[in-house]
Amino acid sequence: MATRKAFLVDTTICTACRSCQVACKNWNELGVEPTTNRGSYENPMDLSPTCYTKIKFVEREKSGSLNWLFLKQQCLHCGEAACMKVCPAPGALYRNAHGAVVFNPEKCTGCKYCITACPFDIPRYNAATNKISKCHLCYDRIENNLIPACAKACPTGAIKYGARETLIQQAKSDGKANIYGEKDLDGLGCMFILKDAPSAYGLPDVPKIKAGTSFYKDFVEPLWNFGAPAAIIALFLHYITFGAKRTDNASEGGTAND
Ligand code: SF4
Ligand code: SF4
Ligand code: SF4
Q1: What is the pLDDT of residues 103-144, one digit of tens each?
Q2: Which has the closest alpha carbon to 178: 5, 3, 7, 8?
Q3: Measured in whole angstroms, how far is the alpha carbon of residue 238 from the centre of its chain?
Q4: Is there an atom of ligand 2 within 6 Å of 53 CB?
Q5: 12 lines ligand 3 (CB under 6 A)
Q6: Using CA atoms, how far apart are residues 136 and 139, in angstroms rounded to an integer?
Q7: Could you read off the pLDDT of 238-254 as tens digits, one per residue?
Q8: pTM (predicted TM-score)
Q9: Which residues contact 187 (CB under 8 A, 6 or more apart)?
Q10: Ligand 2: which residue has its CA nearest to atom 6?
Q11: Maximal C-alpha separation, the chain
Q12: 24: Cα within 13 Å, side-chain hemisphere
């Protein structure tokens, strides 16, 4: 694998301008969606099959005034990716040479296992196409030596993209030692510098794979892979040893009316 690339999003300097949201829509040619005013500046309120990234607004009262936290929601490109662990369709979710978790709609069967497994509630299902979708870390731009569209559009420099280790070292030398996702799940491909506890943003304090997620890939699939050929061989050996199963009537030379 080439050097693992990542995002480091510094939420302390994000102004919630949402240029990243718009740039992602533009680059990926994702359609607009009707939204409604629900009394918040947050818009849209959720990720969707046509919204791979959005700024989440956490609006709260602190010392008698409105206090905001902003979080760029998108796929976190986990080093240990639950979505990949459960996906039964080979090639539908794969890790590319730069460490991003990319989806291939051609191979996706729409089973939605990845949606259930993701600890960050990221993939979204499109019933019209029977496919999932999510951020792919702009693999198509990276392959053409362009940085991801959202990072390019960010006017404050809150979204840093580059070699993962370099981003971590730079943040630490800038005194930003507490990096969300530095080590969890084998390191996230989208890390954050947060102003408050992860739970204040709706992030798991300690992200981990949900219990049972690995069961299919770690136990069922290997057993099936081992068990299916073994069963076929056993059936074949039984057949050549004992022949085809015969009914009692047939073996006794009787008829149905005997
Ligand atoms: S955030 Fe969810 S969808 Fe993205 S790589 Fe991790 S498990 Fe997969
Ligand atoms: S990396 Fe690309 S696909 Fe992912 S959120 Fe940014 S612009 Fe969208
Ligand atoms: S473009 Fe940058 S500053 Fe604007 S909302 Fe996105 S991350 Fe925040």
Answers
A1: 999 999 999 999 999 999 999 999 999 999 999 999 999 999
A2: 8
A3: 46
A4: yes
A5: no
A6: 6
A7: 566 666 655 444 444 43
A8: 0.85
A9: 4, 6, 79, 164, 181
A10: 150
A11: 95
A12: 26
